[in-house]
Write a structure and sequence with these properties.
By secondary structure, the protein is an alpha/beta fold. The chain has a domain of 175 residues: Vaccinia Virus protein VP39 (Rossmann fold, 3-Layer(aba) Sandwich), CATH 3.40.50.150. 39% of the residues lie in helices and 23% in strands.
């Protein structure tokens, strides 16, 4: 996949992404206060900042956050979502070319994004913009597969979506991440996360993914019918839970 492909994939998904993608647990920032001595004085670069969901808890912590986002539609959505935070600004940049100054940030974060990055050039760029003893935190909200509803939801994605297996963050294994941080050690902490949805929420969540069949696609109606059947079988009081494990990897480079 070319860099252009990866930066444009979400252009037609922004509205659903903002409405239906999960946010990040407040415990994540609380944990980093202890793990890396995070304070409000840290300057944070959110690379692949998208709609601003990961930047927000750091802004609430009092940090200055610079969002680095190559997709104009996603960057605009993030600017709008975070418009009330004076500490936020965004730039048109990518993980391999952030546009940020040398040794200008204390912490680099990336949420739902690192699996789109080219690791060698990204590591060089992160090393350039980090201050001495700076840290990198890579975060994913990954759907759990240990409940029947979640497993059947996963099966539907494999059946009806294009290239799901090729673009899933599940392709990034711990050993790939350890190689990115090497020779420094990589650390991992997990948190529980959940969304409660009616059927419109389940549909919107599914359609927020770049690989799902959009309106007009030959499989779109069959995809929605399969989701409707799944929801009908598992709903209680017209709601289901989409369960996640939030994975936080952190360390120095």
């Amino acid at each position: 996949m070319t860099a252009l492909d990866s930066t444009k994939r979400f252009s037609d998904r922004v509205e659903n992404y903002v409405k239906y993608r999960p946010h990040y647990p407040a415990a994540l920032v609380d944990f980093l206060r202890d793990a890396i001595d995070l304070t409000a004085d840290f300057v944070v670069a959110d690379v692949g900042s998208g709609t601003g969901f990961l930047a927000e808890p750091f802004l609430q912590n009092g940090n200055r956050v610079i969002g680095v986002e190559p997709n104009a539609e996603m960057r605009g959505a993030g600017d709008d979502y975070l418009r009330d935070y004076a500490g936020f600004s965004s730039v048109n940049g990518a993980s391999e070319a952030t546009t940020l100054a040398d040794q200008s940030v204390d912490l680099i974060v990336a949420g739902q994004a690192f699996h789109w990055f080219e690791p060698v050039n990204t590591r060089a760029e992160f090393t350039r913009i980090l201050r001495p003893d700076g840290q990198v935190a890579l975060v994913w909200n990954s759907r759990r597969l240990d409940a029947p509803f979640m497993q059947e939801y996963e099966d539907i994605l494999h059946k009806f979506t294009e290239n799901y297996g090729g673009v899933s963050e599940r392709n990034i294994l711990d050993e790939h991440l350890a190689a990115f941080y090497a020779p420094q050690p990589m650390h991992l902490q997990t948190f529980d996360n959940v969304q409660v949805f009616d059927f419109d929420g389940v549909k919107g969540r599914a359609l927020s993914s770049s690989y799902s069949p959009a309106p007009g696609h030959p499989l779109h109606q069959s995809f929605l019918a399969a989701l409707a059947d799944l929801f009908a079988r598992f709903q209680e009081n017209n709601a289901v839970q989409i369960q996640y494990v939030t994975r936080l990897y952190w360390g120095k480079l």
